[in-house]
Fold this protein.
Amino acid sequence: MTDKGTLFFKNKPVIKSAFTIVGPKESQSELGKFFDICLKDDRYGESSYEKAECKMLTMSMKRLIERQKLKDSDVDAIISGDLLNQIISASFSARDFETPFLGVYNACASICEALTLGATLIDGNYAKNTVCSAVSHFATAERQYRYPLELGAIRPAQAQWTVTGAGSYLVSEHLSGYPVISSATIGRVIDFGITDVNNMGAAMAPAACSTITRHLRATNTTTSDYDLIVTGDLGALGSRLLKELAKKQGLDLEPNHVDCGELIYNIDEDEFQGGSGAGCSSVVFASYLYPMLKSKKIKKLLLVATGALLSTLSSQQGESIPGVAHAITVECSND
Amino acid sequence: MTDKGTLFFKNKPVIKSAFTIVGPKESQSELGKFFDICLKDDRYGESSYEKAECKMLTMSMKRLIERQKLKDSDVDAIISGDLLNQIISASFSARDFETPFLGVYNACASICEALTLGATLIDGNYAKNTVCSAVSHFATAERQYRYPLELGAIRPAQAQWTVTGAGSYLVSEHLSGYPVISSATIGRVIDFGITDVNNMGAAMAPAACSTITRHLRATNTTTSDYDLIVTGDLGALGSRLLKELAKKQGLDLEPNHVDCGELIYNIDEDEFQGGSGAGCSSVVFASYLYPMLKSKKIKKLLLVATGALLSTLSSQQGESIPGVAHAITVECSND
């Protein structure tokens, strides 16, 4: 049986540029110096956190497009997602552009879904430029999924901290010198029966393991072919679980695995297990890892954004939390 | 300026099969005899309407795949969406399949987004079979967007009735004799400032007009080149608005426009303006229009699924309701 769902991009679509905007907490982390815009006010001058989240996404896409001296009518499609009900951040952002819009939702795996679809449109000659983006905001996620901040609820030890950040990418036709998206594996939905809504890392680790295993097999590569294998937001606990699960499959992820959720915060206070959210892998890859590929400090990287599939209602109705993970290989251009 | 966002499918991907499941009310409409499964119980034997919605989607995809004598591991990707927060129906359905999953959300335009992406994956030789699907349920939509049914709230005259139904499509490599998806136009997000959450037709009509105009221009066709121009769920009022808007653009839609929301119900009781929901265009096209293309009763059709982009929170925060519409041309195979 050949495994389905791995796409090979022969025409070498590139990530031509990336742009990030983050909140005050993210600005103060060790990655702080890599972000394009660091907000001092996590309301971004808006009357609600939801409007601030939308504005972060809009501005990250506008600045990305402007920096490339493009107009929004030059972009074939915006492919974007977020965590809010009915992905209102992505939807409302898109109305500020003269650009066709595809809304995606695979929770925190949305950025790799967007990049996969963007690369597909470019590689198949359906488009010349696509903007792929994702956003999340700590305050909107807490209000929607858990409790409004005003309630001062205590966070359990296994909890993660939703990243306030927007990351946008311009995926374009091949151009020498830019990092190439060479292949992608679309994730399966994997359910290990986790029901703890504060333990997303455990819910997503099996999906990450499944997608990494499938991607390596389909592309005929091993873990050592990659400088880094980067998961989205498993956090410290989820990353440990992933490495254990991978070990059982005969894969040693110890030498080159990093997790964006572990990278983004100095884990010394309330975020406990590290960062999470649709913006987590999106801003960490865009600001910190993508430039390493561009400058050829690293040559090949597997980005595996991870998502937990649930709603408040599904948890109230006793459903477990399945996970999904999408992977893309990004490598230095050879030409 | 060339208009972006229209995709041409040179390899003629086909819709090989379709499968529909609908609720009791839809079963009793004039289209009732065309649906594959008509439920007598809109809970489908489940403990909640949300679980029933998920089961409808799952069963429609399972039966679709079985009917083609495929296994779910033969399918390259499920591309699916629904209206519930975090698209839990699509997400939870996908865990019952060994198939990679891409979650999409563009409200009631999701089925055309899914079909566009499915056709792209097939046309570009990234996949051989994709399942594209969408679902909605009257009771879950009322509970989430308006009031739980138990409250017995009065519905205003401009309201529509969310279709209880799941429609799934198998989009595959070209095969002689099957209807071909020949092109698609990705919609822009258009906001006319409508704020009445009971008047989705008005919110979506400008987006439908924009997408139809763009699609005709990009494909160098006129309205008379299509046997039917089919909108998703504008309803009676929205359809009138669309025709007025189109007239101002010099387009006469009177002769060949139909709306799935107007087709699905005998408009004689509570549904007022007709059907709506992600399942509306999905089940009407799959059950009633697709067979007409297959039997060559009609030759060429433009399907324009329409979506209203809002959440309860966005409306509470005073946001207007932008719309989006995606269009696909489906035509009889010439070979």
